[in-house]
UniProtKB/TrEMBL annotation:
Cofactor(s) essential for the protein: Mg(2+)
Domain Nudix hydrolase: 8-153
Originating organism: Methylobacterium mesophilicum SR1.6/6
MF annotations from Gene Ontology: hydrolase activity
Protein name: NUDIX domain-containing protein
Pfam families the record matches: NUDIX
């Protein structure tokens, strides 16, 4: 934290999880801070992942988080495909999020989300395997901005030479 940035820095590892049909797994949350046009808590979709614990690197944290949130700590963590840094306000605790996104391809679509809600600081609405074309056309709030396009590119086999820089949407 500093006078210019009043939020605590949180280093985070997340996974762009794709199944064999190139669907992306996303988690739906209800924001505790922001309301949608209907007056209800803003609903947004996010990737599995979370904060690094002391002594962890991003890959280790990503694997642990996949085990905790979707019951899949048995998969290879692929390349770093994107980053998103900056203040994020939709979770209970606003933070200066320093997020790193790794590609993870599952051999099937089996997930176990029975422990997901106990680790989150916002209400979890559910999870969904999204076909990428449907996600891009849905109008659903996906964080960070540009995630659906990035997922479509990596699903097609295009891995960026340098991690893509994504940004948070305005609350």
């Amino acid at each position: 934290m500093s006078a210019a940035n009043p939020f605590p820095i949180r280093h985070i590892a997340r996974a762009v999880v794709l199944d064999p049909h190139d669907r992306i797994l996303l988690i739906a949350y209800a924001s505790v801070h922001t309301r949608g046009a209907d007056g209800e808590p803003l609903r947004f979709w996010f990737m599995p992942g979370g904060g690094l614990e002391p002594g962890e690197d991003h890959v280790t944290a990503c694997r642990r988080e996949l085990g905790e949130e979707i019951g899949r700590d048995d998969v290879a963590i692929g390349p770093l495909v994107a980053v998103c840094d900056g203040p994020f306000h939709l979770f209970r605790q606003s933070r200066d999020a320093r997020e790193r996104y790794f590609l993870v391809r599952l051999p099937d679509d089996r997930v176990d989300t029975s422990r997901l809600a106990e680790t989150e600081d916002n209400p979890v609405i559910g999870t969904r395997w999204w076909p990428l074309d449907e996600l891009r056309a849905s109008g659903a709030r996906v964080e960070p901005a540009g995630l659906a396009d990035l997922a479509a590119e990596v699903a097609a086999g295009t891995i960026p030479a340098q991690p893509r820089v994504l940004t948070w949407q305005d609350p």
